[in-house]
Amino acid sequence: MTITREMIEEFAIGGLILGAGGGGSKEMGLSAGYAALEYGEPRMIPVEELKDDDIVVTISGVGSPASKGAYIDNSYYNRILEMITEELGQKPAALIPSEMGGSSSFGPFIASAINGIPVLDAACNGRAHPLGTMGSMGLNETKGYRTVQVAMGGDQSTDHLVEMTAKGSVPDTASLVLSAAIRAGGLVVVARNPVPVKYVREKAAVGCYSHSLKVGKAHMSGTTALEKITNVAEVLDGRILCQGEIRDYKLETRNGLDVGGFSVHSDKTYKVSFWNEYMAIDSEGERLYTFPDYMMTFDLETGEPITTANIAEGIKVAIVTAPRSSLILGGGMYEASGYRAVEEATGLPMLPYVQDLITR
C-alpha cells in the first residue's frame, strides 16, 4: 500500500505512544514522513509478499533524544543505504525500523521513497528500547553471526560530521555506533543487520506498523484529553495507573543515553525510572511494572503523550500501563544480556522480573 499524509500523522502519534518514553519526537517523525512524500511514494508491504531468502535491512537512529548537539540531515538516510548496498553487493528487498517511536518508526521512509524499496510491516521491536542490541532481533546472542553497520550523523558546518562502517559481532559494532553518535553530537542514523526474510518472520515484531496505526487512530479519535488517554489504555488492554504532578525529576546523559526518574503522588507515591524509555514503576517497596511492560506519561491538560526527554518538574500527567503481552516484541527482548545491561547502567533490578521472557 502507498503511504498517505493521513497515515503519516497516525504513524507519528501511534509510534510516539508505543515508544513508551523513548523513540524520539513526533515532530521529527512528521518531518521525516512528510519529506518522504516529497521525495516519492513510500510503500508498505506485508512479509507475505517477500521470499524467504530476500534480504531485509534495519534503518534506525542511535543516540540521545535530549542531546542539544544532535543533527541529522534527510540526505543521511539515503547515504547509509548506499553504503550498505555497496557492502552487500545488492539492494535490500525491504527496509524495517529498529523500533516503534515518534521518529524512529520513520527510519526507513525517506530511503524507501528515494530508492523505491518498500517498508515492511515489521520492526526489530514493536516498542522502543535503550540498547541497539535489543533491536537486533536476537542476533546479539546468535553465535557466528557477523553483521555490518553503517552510520552517519552530525553537522558538517560545526565539524562534527561522522560517517563510519563497522563489521563484526552485533555487540561490538553496536558499541562502536553508539560511540559514533556521541562523537557526532548525540545522534546518528544507521543501516544494519542484514537478514533474510525467513529470519524476520521468526524474530521480528511482524505487524507492528498496523498496530501503530490502530493505536494512533484510537488516540486521535478522542475529543477530550481524558478520552484520548482512556482510548490508548483500552486499545492496549491496559489502565490509567495514576494521575498527578511530576516531582523530584532528575535527568542526566550517561554514555549517550538519558538516565533519570521522578515520582508521581496520587492515592500513593509512584516512583518512575527511565533509561531513554521507562524502565520500572515502584510503589511502597513493590515493583509494579518492569520493561518491556508498557509505561507511558500523558499530559493531563492536552492528552498528548510525553517522552522522557520532555518530562519536567510540575507537569500534571496520567500514567498509562499495560502488560508486555499487549505489545509486539522482537527477538531482542528475550535475551538476558539486555536486561543485565540495564541493571548495570541504572542500578535497577530487572532480571528477577523478566524471567518469563528470557530464553537464553
Biggest sheet architecture: 8 strands, antiparallel
Q: Uncertain segments of ≥5 residues (pLDDT<50)?
A: none
In whole angstroms, how far apart are the ends? 37 Å
Structure classification:
alpha+beta
Estimate the strand proportion.
Answer: 25-35%
Task: Describe, in plain words, how this protein is organized in 3D.
By secondary structure, the protein is of the alpha+beta class. 29% of the residues lie in helices and 29% in strands. It has 9 helices and 17 strands. The chain has helices spanning 5-18, 26-39, 74-88, 109-115, 170-183, 197-203, 208-220, 225-235, 336-346; strands at residues 44-45, 55-63, 94-96, 119-120, 122-123, 147-153, 162-168, 187-196, 205-206, 239-254, 257-265, 269-275, 277-283, 286-290, 294-299, 305-306, 316-322. The strands form 4 sheets. Strands 14-13-12-11-10-17-15-16 form an 8-stranded antiparallel β-sheet. Strands 3-2-8-6-7 form a 5-stranded mixed β-sheet. The longest helix is centred in the N-terminal third of the chain and has 15 residues, at 74-88.
